[in-house]
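Meet my pick.
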Amino acid sequence: MIAIIDYGVGNLFSLNASLKYMNIESEVTKDAQHIRDADKIILPGVGAFKDAYDKLESTGLIPVLDEEVKKGKCLLGICLGMQLLFEKSYEYGEHKGLCYLKGNIYPLRDDIPSNYNVPEIGWNKLFAVKENDPLLKYTDNEPYVYYVHSYYAKADVDSLAAYSEYGVKVSGYVHKDNVFGTQFHPEKSGRDGLNILKAFDEID
């Protein structure tokens, strides 16, 4: 069973519906014991970094996440949930993240040409940089995935698994050990996105 963490941000129910469509057992929960009992965890998220971190902290679930990640349980962060996996965000100040991955979050506007829109909204091609990555095993070569974001991760080279081009290389998918993250929304990314969720479910 996959536990989808409910901490007051994120499109939880469309994600849960996508998992159910793929016959993947899942539960939207804020119950610490249910998260401990789950086989895997998804941390969704939309909105502002600090607000999301504060809401997650207020649930008391950060120590639970720390404990489960340390034990080797697979965690997938989606969109803002992925950004929270990193060390810091520079969204309206400087804010600490969960520190599961090396790297920081920066404004797109500072690094892309002025004729590019912010936020990036829409489909973009994903280029893999790691061969035989477990989450990409069912996707097409260079799949298109769906983004909605104004900030992006400058990920450490060890965790960058795939990127998209948007005037700059956007860390689209990161993976190190049992920690995974997608800046794009797999639940909105058609068949390839659903297959990414399927592959996550199948990881031992």
The helical segments are 12-21, 32-37, 49-58, 62-71, 80-83, 190-202. The longest helix spans residues 190-202. DSSP finds six helices and 14 strands in the chain.
